[in-house]
Amino acid sequence: MRVAVKVRLKRSILDPQGKTVQQALQHLGFEQIREVRIGKLIELEIEEGQNRAETLRMIEEASRKLLSNPVMEDFEIEYPGETP
Amino acid sequence: MRVAVKVRLKRSILDPQGKTVQQALQHLGFEQIREVRIGKLIELEIEEGQNRAETLRMIEEASRKLLSNPVMEDFEIEYPGETP
User: Fold this and answer.
1) A64 is in which domain, residue-wise?
2) How far apart are CA B23 and CA B20, in angstroms?
3) Where would a tag sit more exposed on chain B, N or C end, judged by fewer CB atoms within 10 A?
C-alpha cells in the first residue's frame, strides 16, 4: 500500500525558500503567483496484511517521530483513494 | 486559488535521502515501511480572475521552467477539489 505524508511548515513560520521561488517566478513573468510555500511530499510503501486502524496509528507515529518536526511543521496523511 | 504542485524524483532515479529515512524508521521499529521516497510539495497562491485553461498553462510552464528539474523529476499539478 502506498501512503503519502504531506509535511508543511506551520502557517506562522516564514518560508524563505518559498519566498525566493516566488520572487524568481515573478522575475520570469509569473506575476499571478502571489505566494509559494514549499513542503515535503513523503511517499511510503507499506507492507500489507494489517488492519487499517493499526496501519494508520503506525504511520501517524512515524510522521510525528521522524518525518516531521512538530515545533515547525504540520503533517497530513493521505491514503490511496482518499480525496485530499 | 490555491494549487499544489507535487514534484517527485523519477522512478529510475535513486533517492538516498528517502533510503536513509527508511533505514532510520526501520531502526525505530517501523519495519512495515518498505520504501520511502521524498519529493516536494509546492503550494502556490494564485491570483483569481483568469480562465482555468490559461491558469493551467501558466502553472504548467512555471512547474517545468522553475519548480522541477525535468531531467530528474516529474511533476503533477493538483487543483482544489480534485481527487489526487
Assistant:
1) 2-78
2) 5
3) C
